[in-house]
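Journal club side-thread
Mid-discussion, someone asked how the predicted structure for our own chain would compare to the paper's figures. Pasting it here so we can look after the session.
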Amino acid sequence: MYLHYPRMRAAFTLIELLVVIAIIAILIALLVPAVQKVREAAARAHCVNNLKQWALGFHNYHDVNKKFPFGAQTSPVRLTFIPFLFPYIEQENLAKKFDYTKHFYLPPNVDFYAYTGVLANPLPLYYCPSDKPGELTLTSAPGYFRIRANYVVCWGNVTRTAPTPSKRRAWESSATTRPTTPPSLEGHALATFWMGRRTPCSCRRS
């Protein structure tokens, strides 16, 4: 009498293997967009938090100084608003190192051909998390190495010096392309304030 044992298969057949691969591919195709959406939502939340921290820094500066900082100034020294906000965005150490009596492009504020100056510190608050890492570390001015940022300000009327007669005539003759504000208008810096991103990022679309 012979005993019958079921025949053992050594492996999957080719069709079974293809079916398994197809199922895995479908699952990956379903999961990738969901993961991407979660990442974009997290990046958007981070980016909004950065804007909130900048806004709080401006308001804290205003509470102490009873005015907003200049968006940018050229006299007595050339500076932007960012160094003035260092103490109000938890960067007291940078504020202590920064020399407010010198132009922003002079040491120790900026070191020539070296990312060692105060303005070369890549603070996380400068960047939207959806931006490409390191994309804003170069500068358009050769040798003056400093860090760029995603966030910029738009301010209202700024104090200006009166233009030369030729510039005034050029403005008056360019009726279709001229700005709405004549170059001779003088006013107070930061009469209006708004802040936004310098470059587009995926978190803007989420």
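Post-session note: The chain has a mean pLDDT of 74.
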